[in-house]
Automatic annotation (TrEMBL):
Residue ranges of the region described as Disordered: 68-98
Lineage, broadest ranks: Eukaryota, Viridiplantae, Streptophyta, Embryophyta, Tracheophyta
Coiled-coil annotated residue ranges, if any: none
UniProt keyword annotation of Transferase present: no
Domain Glycosyl transferase CAP10: residue ranges: 176-426
Transmembrane feature ranges: 21-43
Keywords associated with the record: Membrane, Transmembrane, Transmembrane helix
Listed name of the protein: Glycosyl transferase CAP10 domain-containing protein
Length: 500
């Protein structure tokens, strides 16, 4: 590597180094059409992109890419040596620091998600059993990560940004991620049916993915959007959160439109089409203001109309699932306006930490009940404005505090650590696996992808983390949580029934 090109990524916009995609715009438009039939999540973005003015301030991170010719033979540089742990002996030794605080309660679900293997452990045969549903195998050995990709293509850059997130975890906690092998599924839906694994059936395959539901055993892991979603111009979670916060200051809650807002693609799920029936019309006002996301024209305008700040202008925001879970939930919660959450079927890694009437307002999912449920919620909130604002703030507070990137990484670390304890085989690197490293991932990427990667790079080794993993739920904790959920939901139903 005689000639290395070094540049600040903030200067990089517009100057593509070695890898501008030919015909990118045409291809992108084409993909937009194809995408309609392929995935729900693309269209779920009832929100977003505050990318204008991005690049301000510049990035501290410097990325060094080899000249294009050499890129092919480029291998990952050695990672920095692990942090020397401070010794506790010697005269200068500081008093041992207090144990880190407990992680948020949703971390307790890690134990539940891994429970199917708590007795049997995980054999190589179990792990590989769902190989046909996996997009890649992740191997961590000695603090370095390797990926073996399987034939199935993932939608857009989900796999890339998921792997980028794992790489950032390794940067953040060098030497702390244990050796492991796992299978990862980047699709929308869970794949491991619970029903197939009753009593005498063989233990299920552990398969990592983005969401699961009551009927499935998939192990949930943070989705790619925390590191960015370039195809719809959604920035990484951390910088985006800052902008949402600023946006929230622009319009005080009491000055917002006193209605419930939703914008998205209704064609991915029948329940979304059912929701559209609640839109205001000349004959009926259900207090809902609903809009169809027009991705084709919004793409032409670089998603300007979807900008998140412009979507925090209503006092209430509706969250409804797409074909499966939707990454939009965290952005919707961030608005300081109560989220009217249409009862979901799927969960992701954090959503089980959300409680009705505390972080959101529950809305009935049954066909024919949504409209009256939404109307009631808005009327109630407008009549109890302090309580409504409290719910709005608690939802945003959850995304700001319990869902900050520190905790996203801590969740990944704890989940992978607990998972690795269950392995009954020695992880090895398959010959076809390729090492993940900053240069090999970011240098060949497109401009926006690379920009998001740099924006979402984790700060180097973290001192003092991670938070302390809470023990599994005790039966009484589980019971009281379940009853809080059903009590609050029941309370709302009771109120609703009294207005009929
Ligand atoms: C809902 O009603 C508003 C106001 O009339 C209108 O602008 C909007 O296009 C409607 N949305 C849909 C999906 O029809
Ligand atoms: C999932 O299971 C819980 C507890 O068994 C139940 O209360 C809930 O209604 C189920 N959810 C769905 C969507 O089936
Ligand atoms: C919820 O709990 C409170 C106190 O525990 C109880 O008084 C109330 O009746 C419950 N409401 C419902 C709808 O179950």
């Amino acid at each position: 590597m005689k000639q290395q090109i070094s540049y600040l990524l903030s200067l990089l916009q517009g100057t593509s180094m070695q890898c501008r995609r030919a015909g990118g715009i045409l291809l992108f438009s084409f993909l937009l059409f194809v995408g309609v039939f392929l995935s729900s999540l693309w269209f779920d973005m009832s929100m977003i992109s505050s990318s204008f003015g991005r690049g301000r301030g510049g990035s501290r991170v410097r990325l060094t890419c080899p000249p294009a010719k050499e890129a092919a033979q480029h291998t990952c540089p050695s990672p920095p040596p692990p942090l020397a742990r401070p010794t506790t002996t010697g005269p200068a030794a500081a008093p041992s620091p207090p144990p880190p605080p407990l992680c948020p309660t949703y971390f307790q679900w890690i134990h539940e998600d891994l429970r199917p293997w708590s007795a049997s452990g995980i054999t190589r045969e179990m792990m590989e059993r769902e190989k046909e549903n996996a997009n890649f195998r992740l191997v961590v050995l000695g603090g370095r990560a390797y990926v073996e990709k399987y034939g199935r293509r993932t939608f857009q850059t989900r796999d890339l940004f998921t792997q980028w997130g794992i790489l950032q975890l390794l940067r953040r906690y060098p030497g702390r991620v244990p050796d492991l092998e796992l299978m990862f599924d980047c699709s929308d839906f869970p794949a491991v049916a619970k029903a197939a694994h009753q009593e005498n059936a063989p233990a299920p395959a552990p398969l990592f993915g983005y969401c699961s539901d009551n009927a499935s055993l998939d192990i949930v892991f943070p989705d790619w959007s925390f590191w960015g979603w370039p195809e719809v111009n959604i920035e990484p979670w951390e910088p985006l959160m800052k902008e949402v916060k600023e946006g929230n200051r622009r319009v005080r809650w009491v000055d917002r439109e006193p209605y419930a807002y939703w914008k998205g693609n209704p064609w991915v799920a029948s329940w979304r089409q059912d929701l559209l029936k609640c839109n205001v019309s000349s004959g009926q006002d259900w207090n809902a203001r609903l809009y169809v996301q027009d991705w084709i024209s919004e793409n032409k305008q670089k998603f300007m109309n979807s900008a998140l700040a412009s979507q925090c202008k209503h006092r209430y925001k509706i969250y409804i699932e797409g074909a499966a879970w939707s990454v939009s939930q965290k952005y919707i919660l961030g608005c300081d306006s109560p989220t009217l959450r249409v009862n979901p079927r799927y969960y992701d890694f954090f959503s089980r930490g959300l409680l009705p009437l505390r972080h959101y307002w529950p809305v009935k999912a049954e066909e024919g009940h949504k409209c009256s449920s939404i109307k009631f919620a808005v009327d109630w909130g407008n009549a109890h404005q302090d309580k409504a604002q409290e719910i709005g703030k608690a939802g945003s507070g959850f995304t700001e505090e319990e869902l900050k990137m520190d905790y996203v990484y801590d969740y990944m670390l704890h989940l992978l650590t607990e998972y690795a304890k269950l392995l009954r085989f020695k992880p090895t690197k398959p010959p076809a696996a390729v090492e993940l490293c900053t240069e090999l991932m970011a240098c060949p990427a497109g401009d926006l992808e690379r920009e998001f990667m740099v924006l979402s790079m984790a700060d180097g080794p973290r001192h003092g983390g991670p938070c302390t993993l809470p023990p599994p739920f005790t039966p009484s904790e589980m019971k009281s949580m379940m009853s809080e959920v059903s009590n609050s939901t029941g309370q709302v139903e009771l109120w609703e029934s009294k207005t009929d």
